Amino acid sequence: MPQHTDTVGGVAAADTTTTAARPGASGASAVGSPQAALAAHGLRLEVLPTPVRPADGSDPKAADFPAQALFTRAVEKGFYEKVPDGRAMDQSLGMDADDAKRSLGVYADGDDPAAREPVGTFVDWASTLTVSPGIELPAWLISNVTVSPGHRRRGILRAMMGRSLTDAVAAGMPVAALTVSESAIYGRFGFGVCCHARRAQVRTTGHVQMRGPAATGTVTREDPREVIDQVDALQRELQLLTPGSPRRPQTHRVMWKDALASENDGKGEGSFVGLYRDAEGRARGAVVYRFKGWETEPATVRVQAFMAADPEAWRGLVRYLLDLDLIERVEFARLPDDGALEAVLENARLVTVTDHWDDLYLRILDVPACLEGRAYVSGVAGGLTLAVSDRHGFADGTWRLTVAEGRGQVERLADGAQEQADLALDVAELSGLWLGGVSAVTGVRAGTVRERTPGAAVLLDTLLSSAAPVHLLTGF
Ligand SMILES: CC(C)(COP(=O)(O)OP(=O)(O)OC[C@H]1O[C@@H](n2cnc3c(N)ncnc32)[C@H](O)[C@@H]1OP(=O)(O)O)[C@@H](O)C(=O)NCCC(=O)NCCS
Prior knowledge:
- It is built from twelve helices and 19 strands.
- The protein has helices at 34-40, 66-78, 86-98, 156-170, 224-241, 250-256, 311-322, 340-344, 367-373, 427-433, 440-446, 456-464; strands at 43-48, 102-108, 120-132, 135-147, 175-178, 192-193, 196-203, 218-222, 271-277, 283-291, 300-308, 329-336, 351-358, 361-364, 382-389, 397-404, 407-413, 423-426, 449-451.
- The strands form three sheets. It has a seven-stranded mixed beta sheet, with helices on both faces.
């Protein structure tokens, strides 16, 4: 199940098929009722109550939440994972409770959710997303989308997504977010990729030279169970500084603490924390890492989480990892796509990028709330008109964006104004561009952004440029 991995993620997206467009949005499509489409296949969609922890704070018991436990089993099977049982299932329900996750299940008519697994699963919940350093907006997170093999291509995904996005709009959510296992599905539903990520490894045999001054702080190896609160506080600090990062789900705290219930119950996965303290002794960064075992050659540690609140902490932690005794290779499970690792090494070719992927997908539901809700780099100013097409209506329209003194203002122009727009694009492209992690100029080259006023794409990239790399710190 994705919740048990470093990258925690995976969702597919679907048509909203909704009539509940935001007031003022034109052209809301009403392409039929997803419920009716399900009914035609003898199916129905149900929202399960979120599990709750008992008053003593212990995990909920699967026996008290049979429908949610069966739902979790279906999710695990959908990702070809082992099905949790006993304490592991209770723990999973407890993490769902902590994040107030909502489960949407699709069931065969007549099936009791407390007795049968759903044939479709979908999880959503209200969270927050950093959109500029220090600024968060409410965000609707989506995960754990699966459809059982015997029920594909009957509109189950479409129905679940339609219900979810309709509810997100009703709750006033400006944006929805997901990560994907397959990327071909999401654009049609208005999701666009806003940042990429990569996995990389560094050969650390011998002394690896770093460029620039040595960090003045120190790093100590710690037991994750003893320093989890410091790690968590650092993660929150960094998350607030990182556009493209939602509040971390509870799963990550449990993983970093090495307390995920597993087959070798109680022993954990053998994670360590390297904790960076600055010259004044303040914790400013942490890495969570695990040795891959003596059977792996060359001897390797895998860095599951890397959090540094300032550049010195980042440098100090890189140095620490490069210097680990007996270790010949360091793997970084998830890095921003910014090349910082190559930049800090004297020999950049020690870095091998082993994977590179489209990471966070966003779906703008409220154009003014999104464009006015983020900050703009000070000194950048200008105005542009954007003709945005959204077949589901939420973002459809012609919008004038004016940026000055670090703030954006959005005005909706009258119907017909799209002819005068500087740029024309689908909501999926606007959603990807919004935080400044991908380029409108690239979109023009690819033909996904139409430039009607020469230079408009460069101007949009300038206006939307981000003060910090757009990066998803923790999958969900
Ligand atoms: C991907 C998955 C959720 C699709 O569910 P589904 O109920 O079959 O999808 P729907 O019938 O609602 O299809 C909705 C639309 O998406 C398209 N679509 C669905 N799966 C697709 C895929 N894998 N690739 C491309 N398009 C896809 C459908 O063709 C349909 O398109 P349309 O708008 O032209 O009609 C399902 O196949 C699944 O569970 N796969 C395994 C787990 C997984 O991959 N989960 C997603 C993790 S990212």
